[in-house]
């Protein structure tokens, strides 16, 4: 079985066919993460709405945001997804779809902090440019209040790190099909993005879920700052505050912190800010 990377190219109409599959892998991966499972809490009959939202958001970024990149890992042991095979258009450069099925994907940005830099918007989970503003509404049976609270913290963290790093590569999302974990697909994609950053002499940043920290450390990322209540190194989420698609309020979380100042008990989720400096040969 051979895994290989395919970099998506907006000028290739065939590469637009991968986004339904990317959305499915994205949702499957997110439903294994406690925070994302709390946000996308609906039963399976809610999944079509989630998938449509993810596909729309990724496709728009791919088409309209020149600083955005997507790459996928394909597995030769499985046939390509039907939408790719049936939608493929023969060109002078190629006469068949790339080999294999999508099992992992990465979305990353080259962030420019110069006079024409993208801005961050607290209503989105990604940087926006003058040509791309996320005005979507959350799909039914998603926890909009929790999502908005988390994204606002994430945006502030990205703004803080951007002020420290200057121009950089932002790894916005990395996800692997849960059926293909521990096969090295995530590491392949991270090395691919790191090589691009290194080629331009740029540092990189991301926010790591607890399960992803090891993958990121293996390619040279380190946790930023010391974490704690100053919010410099960790984005904390009190999942008990938001349990059952409700909001028990800031006071509920403050009382939990008073009783558990190190957040060692149940119900705490930590997204860790990580940075990797450029490496030169």
UniProtKB/TrEMBL annotation:
Segments of this protein annotated with the region Disordered: 120-141
Annotated Polar residues bias: 121-132
Domain of life where this protein originates: Eukaryota
A Pfam family reported for this protein in Swiss-Prot or TrEMBL: Acetyltransf_7
Cross-referenced InterPro entries: Acyl_CoA_acyltransferase, GNAT_dom, Trichothecene_AcTrans
Ranges of residues in domain N-acetyltransferase: 169-222
Sample GO molecular function, one term: acyltransferase activity, transferring groups other than amino-acyl groups
Name of the molecule in the record: N-acetyltransferase domain-containing protein
